[in-house]
Amino acid sequence: MTPVWMMRQAGRYLPEYRATRKQAGDFMSLCQSPELACEVTLQPLRRYAFDAAILFSDILTIPDAMGQGLYFAEGEGPRFRKVIRTEKDVEALPELNIAKDLGYVTDAVSVIRRELNGSVPLIGFSGSPWTLATYMIEGSGSKDFRNAKAFMFNQPQAMHLLLDKLATAVTDYLNAQIEAGAQAVQIFDTWGGVLTTPAYRDFSLAYMKKIVAGLIREREGRKVPVILFTKNGGLWLEDIADSGCDSVGLDWTIDIGTARQRIGSKVSLQGNMDPTILYASPESIRAEVARILESYGTGNGHVFNLGHGITPDVDPANVAVFVESVHELSQKYHAG
Amino acid sequence: MWRSSLSLCTSYRRNTMPADIDNWVQDSSAPICIIGIGSNLPTDSTTPQENVERAIEALHSLSDEALCISSLWQSAPIDCPPDSPHFVNAVVALLAREQSAYRVLEQLQAIENHFGRRRCGVVNEPRVLDLDLLSFAQVQQDDPVLTLPHPRAHQRRFVLEPLAEIAGNHVLPGFDKNIDRLLRELDLDDSVQKIESHY
To answer: Is A12 a catalytic residue?
Structure first.
């Protein structure tokens, strides 16, 4: 069978998640309580036969720990109270002590790992330096990233300094998650795909490469796989696969069979169903799962996933159709 | 010597003399594992005592050799939610087939999960089956996933009483006192009671 998990599988589409979040008060309190973060991490596993647990947290915990003041305005995306606009702002960013500043995340990893009791592996994650930098400069999400890109073009040295600081923090952060019990880690580069080819290489991929080179790669006598995911990264698959990662996450815009031909001999692939298909009928979901499995073809090296996180108002029944379809329809590709 | 201790192990299962793991010769490359077993919840068809007995049967799959098995003991719950039922406990020593403590931990977790251990996030909740790796060869480590020897083993009568039956002279890695002495010096005011069992 092809293993399956889902980005943001612990999330708002589940009524039990919404209840726990209400109990916590707000999103950051939920992230910062190891017991509640553990509870929501386990919730999707009680409903569906996912083959891994994914740490419940947010990609923006690092900038928050650096003092940027993360908050979530009701009904809007993440926002920061402080933004980065000058080289001085970058220089003033503190070096993180993960155990002290982000201990709530590593504590959650330990609690979840204990509660999973070996039933499925636990995946940790972090945002990529470039993606974190965009939020720190814009102060929120953005349509065109005008501030982040202007900062990059006008003050490339300051941008490199920022990305370098973030790469160090992400490396320490992921290593702390691995030491606490995470059995694989994923780096989310949500916004690398908005860059030009040279800018992607120099301002996003270069720093992810640096992180990969600094990660603990073996723990508990087993390899700790590293997954790189750049949304809209289909143009640069070969470069991504050359980064030293073990697995590449794909969004839905690329055909997974083509991706396999290009980099399948080097890395495993994770993906890549359009999350929006979960709004369609069970028959359509099943057909799309079948199409992706057929495109990948026979053999191992494929983890079924969505091409991005599941959206909040999907019907949980459709997620059951998705997971069951993957397990059922993938069997013939693993025969013998 | 190895063979003779084997026969002791086997005979002990008929409720005669306890075998002692210090009789195990150390030229075997198999690491000595000490495993604590506990249950305080029945399943649909088995009592806690039967859960422990079945777990002992299942532990045979971890070793090519005979096991050293303590008596079963009953203990009052410690640090557990109010009204938690009594525990049935035992300790088993075995020569592990696996050379890695993490692999043994995975094997124990697989047995627990097979018994339908339900995790609901409550610390020290009542449980169908709890298997603790108390020590693994001479390994000493402090790791969020697996701390060896088990950090609380030496403070618990429900561990030390059964362990003393099969390993009274044994010294856990990092300790300077044997199990008999740890048991004598235990000042925790808890009580455990031996249970009649076919083990």
So the answer is: yes
- In tens, the pLDDT along A297-325 reads 999 999 999 999 999 999 999 999 999 99
ipTM of the complex: 0.77
Query: Does the pLDDT value for residue B88 go beyond 90?
Result: yes
What pLDDT is attached to residue A336?
A: 63
List the catalytic residue out of A13, A17, A21, A48. A21
Tell me how far apart the alpha carbons of residues A286 and A280 are, in angstroms, rounded to a whole number. 10
Please report, rounded to a whole number, the percentage of residues in chain A having pLDDT higher than 90.
97
Whether the per-residue pLDDT at B17 is higher than 60: the answer is no
Contacts of A180 in chain B (CB under 8 A): 144
Please indicate whether, in this complex, the C-beta atoms of A220 and B117 are within 8 angstroms of each other. no
- Which residue in chain B has the smallest CA separation from A122? B145
Give the pLDDT mean for A259-263: 98
Q: What is the mean pLDDT of residues A82-88?
A: 96
Mutate to test the interface with A, among B119, B141, B150 (most CBs of A within 10 A): B119
How far from each other are the two terminal CA atoms of chain A, in whole angstroms?
A: 11
Chain B: residue nearest A183 by CA?
B145
Q: Is the Cβ pair B145, A109 closer than 8 Å? A: no
| Interface touch B117/A113, C-beta < 8 Å | no
pLDDT digits (tens, 9 = 90+) for B139-148: 999 998 999 9
- Token look-up 């750049």 returns A230
Contact (Cβ atoms closer than 8 angstroms) between residue B162 and residue B71: yes
Q: Note if A71 is an active site residue.
A: no
A17 CA: distance to closest CA in chain B (Å):
15
Helix axes A156-180, A146-154, angle to 10 degrees: 110
The Cα of A156 is separated from the nearest Cα of chain B by a number of Å equal to: 40
Other beta carbons less than 10 A from residue A309's beta carbon? 14
Q: Which residue on chain A is closest to B101 by alpha carbon?
A: A220
CB-CB: which of B117, B121, B143 is closest to A42?
Answer: B121
B103 contacts in A (CB within 8 Å)? 221
Dihedral angle computed from the Cα positions of residues B59, B65, B70 and B73, in that order, rounded to the nearest 10 degrees: 10
Burial of B37 (0-12, 13-18, 19+ CB in 10 A): buried
The whole-angstrom separation of Cα B102 and Cα A81 is 44
Contact A325, A2 (CB under 8 A): no
Residues paired with residue A185 on neighbouring β-strands, in sequence order: A124, A226
Handedness of CA A149, A60, A90, A82 (dihedral sign): positive
- pLDDT for the residue B78: 74
Tell me the two tokens of residue A71.
């908050």
A215-219, A226-230, A256-260, B38-42: least confidently modelled range:
B38-42
Q: Return the residue matching tokens 């796989």.
A: A225
Cβ atoms of B17 and B11 closer than 8 Å? yes
